[in-house]
# Entry
Amino acid sequence: MNAVLDPAGPQAAHIAELWWVTLAVCALVFVAVLAVLAWGLWRAPRGDPQMVPGARPAPGAEKHLIRWVTAATVISTILLSGLLVASVATDRELAQLSLTNALNVRVKAHQWWWEVTYDDPQPERMFATANELRIPVGRPVLVTLDSGDVIHSFWVPRLHGKKDLIPGRTATIQLRADKAGEYHGPCAEYCGLQHAFMAFEVIALPPEQFETWAEAQRKPAADPEDAAARRGRELFLSGSCMLCHAIHGTTANARTAPDLTHIASRTRLGAGRLANTPQDLAAWIADPQKFKPGVNMPAHLLPDDDLKALVAYLGMLK
Amino acid sequence: MSSRAKILRDGGGWDSPAAKALARTWGDKPGLIGWISTVDHKAIGRRFIVTAFGFFALAGMMGGLMRHQLSVPSNTIVGPDFYNQLFTMHGTTMMFLFAVPVMQGIAVYLVPLMIGTRNTAFPRMTACSYWIYLIGGLTLFAGFAFGTGADAGWFAYVPLAGPEYGIGKRADFWNVLVNFTEAMGLMVAVDIATVILKMRAPGMSLRRMPLFVWASLVMAFMIIFSMPTVMLGANLVQLDRMLGTHFFNPAEGGDVLLWQHMFWFFGHPEVYFIFIPALGFVSAIIPTFARRPMFGHDAIVLSLIATGFLSFGLWVHHMFATNIPELGKSFFTAMSFMIAIPTAVQIFCWIATLATGRLNFRTPLLFVLGFFFVLLIGGLTGIILGSVPLDLQVTDTYFVVAHLHYVLVGGAVFPLLGAFFYWFPKVTGHMMSERMGQWQFWLFFIGVNVTFFPMHQLGLDGMPRRVYTYLAESGWGTLNLVSIIGAVVVDMSMLLFVLNVVLSLFRRERAAENPWGAPTLEWAVPSPPPPFNFVVLPVVSSREPLWSRETGGATHVSGLATGTREGLVTTVLDAVPDVRYIYPSPGIWPFVAALAVAGWLIWSIFSVRGALWGMIPPTIAFIAWFWPRKRENDQHLALEKRP
# Structure
C-alpha cells in the first residue's frame, strides 16, 4: 500500500532517500522546539492579571536570551542550507538518468483516459494502447506527455514524481523500473467530473516478455473463430462502437476513445474503474454511467445475446 | 498606578460633559437607516467578523460532508458533480469569504482603538466594502443553491474553467466572486494602511507601535500588491469566456500556465496575509499572559516585514510539476526554505518571552500553545513541499491536504480562536466561560490532529486530492475512517464554542475594561467601547502604555472639538501631530453604491451588455456619494489655516 516510500526504480529511490533525510531533520527540529517550549512553560512562575509587570528590562539585561535566540536562528539557517543542498543534489540525480537505448512512449491524456503510443523509427512498428503502460525492466523509458483537453498529471508513485500534461506544452519524464511488477498511476491533477477514475497501470516485465508482448501488440486484431465472436464483430462494426473506438484489422478506425485492438490483454477497464473480466466488461458496456458517471461512453440497451456476443468478441482480442 | 495609566483609564471621565457631547456627535441615528448608514469602525468590524464566521460554519459543514463521503470506499452519499462543487465552494469560501475578511474585520475593529484614534481613515469606503463582501458571498452561495456552484477548484485552473470545458455559468460565478472579494479586500487594505500610517496617537512612533498593528500594516500592503493580479487574471478568463478572446487558449497563441502564475502570485501571498495577522494575535496574547513585555520586539517586527516580502517569491512552488525550467524551480526551493527563518525567529522570541514571564494559563494562551504544536508540523511539512523532488511526489495528494490544514488551522484558526476569547470581553462587554473554553480547546486540538494527521500517510500511500471516491482495493479506507472520527470531535468543539458565545452574551455580569491586565490602548476604554472610542486622544510614550510607570509629560491631546467629528492626523514615522481632520459622517450612499456595484457585477455574469450598461448605476451612486455638501465644506474651510 505504501507507494512513495516503496520505490521500484532509481528515480523514486532518490526521492525516498531525500524524504528520509528531510523527515529526520524536521522531526528533530519539532522535538527540540517543543521540548524547549515545555521546559520554559514548566520553569516559569505563575502570574495573574492583577500583577503589574515590571518595567521593560534594560538593554543588555537579557543578553543570555539574545544569545539563545541567535544561536537557534543560526542553527535553523544551517539546517535549512543543508536540506537545500540535499534537495538540489537529488534534483541533479533525477536529471541524470541515462537514456541510452531508451524506450520512447508518448502519453496523451484525455478526459478521463490515457492514450499510450509506443514510438519506433519504423512507423509500421508503432502501436497504441490505452490506460496501460508496459515497460521492460531495467531499460530507461522516456515518456513524452501531452494533453488533448484540460490539465492532467502523470504519476506513478513507485517509479517517479509527477509531471503535468498541459495542453500546448509538451513535457517529458524519464523513469526506469528495476523490479518487475504492477505499479498504479492515478491522474494527479484535478481534471473534471471523473478525475477520481482516471488511472493507469504500469506493468514492468522482464525484457524478453516485454518484447513478446510488444510483438503481439503490433499485430492487427485476431479474426473471430466461433459464431458468437463473429456476431460480436458484426455488432461492433455496425453499431455505435466504431464511432469512437478503433480495432486494427477491421474498418473501425476512430481515435476519440481507447484503442481496443488488444483489449483482452489489459488488466483494467474504464481507466482503472473495473477489473477486466467478462462479467465486468458486459456490465460496463451495458451502462458505463453507473460506474463512472459523466464518462463519454453512453449506455447500450442491447439484448442479452448481443451483449454476450460482443463480450465474446472483445474477450478474444488478446 | 502611574498617573499616565490613570488618565488613560479615566479618559478624561466617561460621564464628563465632553463625553456626552462626543456621544451625541459620534452616535448613529436610530432605526434601520441609522444601522445601515453607520461608519463606526467597531460596528463594521463586528459585521465583518460575524459574517465571516457564518461563512466559516457553511464551509466547515461542506468539509464535514466531504469527509463523510470519503469515510468508506465507493461511497454514494454525493456524486462526482456535487462533490466537485463541494470542494470548490469549501476552498473558495474558506479563503475568500472567511479567512481574509475575518482578519480584515478584526483589524478594522481593533486598529483604531490600539493606536488611539476615533475611527478608521476612510470609514465610508470600509462600510461600502462590507456590503460588497456580503452580497458577493451571498451571490456565490445563491449560485450553489441553484446548482450553479463553481466546480473548477478554488484555484480555477484553465482550461477546466475556460470557455470550452467550464460548462454553464459556474466559472462565471467564481470569476465574479473574485471581483467582489478583491474589491472588498483592496478597499479595506487601503483604509487600514492609511489609518496606521497617518492617524496614530501622538507619541506612538513606529518603534512604539503594537505588534498586532505592525502585522495589520504588513497584511494591508500585501493585499494591495497581490490582489490586483488575481483580479486581472479572473477578468481575462471572463473575457475568454464572454468575448472569445484567447489569453489562455494555446491553439491561438495563449498560454494556460499564464493563469497559474497570475493565480499563485496572489495565492501564495494570500496564505501569508492570513497567517501574518494571526502572528499579530499571538504577539498580542503572549505578553499579556506572560506578564512581561515581548522579548525581541524589533526582531519580530523585522520578521513580519521580511515574511511579507519573501512571500512574493514563492509562488512557483505550486507549479513544480509543470515543465518550467528546472533551474528556476531550485530558486523557489531556496526562497521557500528562506521564509522559514523569519517565522523561526518569531517562535524563538515567543518561547523566550514565555520562559522568562509569569504565566497565567487562560484559554487564549492555551490556543497559542496549540498553535505552536500544530503550526510547527505544518511549517515543517511545508519545507518538504518546498523541495522540488519531494514536492513532485507529494503535491496534489492528501499530504498537501494535511499540510495546508495544519498551516491554516494551526497558523490562523488556533490564534483566531485565542483572539476571539481574548477580545470578546472588549467587543461585547461579557466574559466567555473559561471552563467551556478549556474544554473547547482540548476537543479542537485532539479533533484537528486526528482529522488531518492521517492524511499525511494517505498522501504517501498515493491518494490524490479532489477525488469523490476510491476503490476498496486502494487500501485507503482505514485512515479515512479515522479522519472522520476526528472531524466529529472538531464538530463537537465548534458546537461548544457557539454555545459558549451565546451563553456568555446573556450573562449578566459585565466585563471590566481590562480584565486580562493587558498593556495596549484598546484596554483603556470601557467594554464595549463608546462610539467615539476615547474622550480625549491619548499621548503615548512607551510600547506598553497601560503598563508604563513613567510620570510627567503630556498625557492626552486637548483642544479637539467635541461637536464635530474631529480627529488628528500625525506624521508617518514619529506620530507628531500634523493637522486636524474631520472624519466623514454616516451616510446611506456607501450602501447604495455597494448595491449598484453588486448589481453591475451580477448582471455581468449573465450578459456582456450587462457588464457595460451595468456601470451606469454605480457611476451615479459614486457621484452622489462624493457630491460636495455645503455644511461639510464650511467645516473644512473653518479648519483651514490661512497663510
Notes: The mean pLDDT of chain B is 94. Chain B has one domain: 1-360+516-643. Chain B has 21 helices and two strands. Chain B touches chain A through 96 residues (CB under 8 Å).
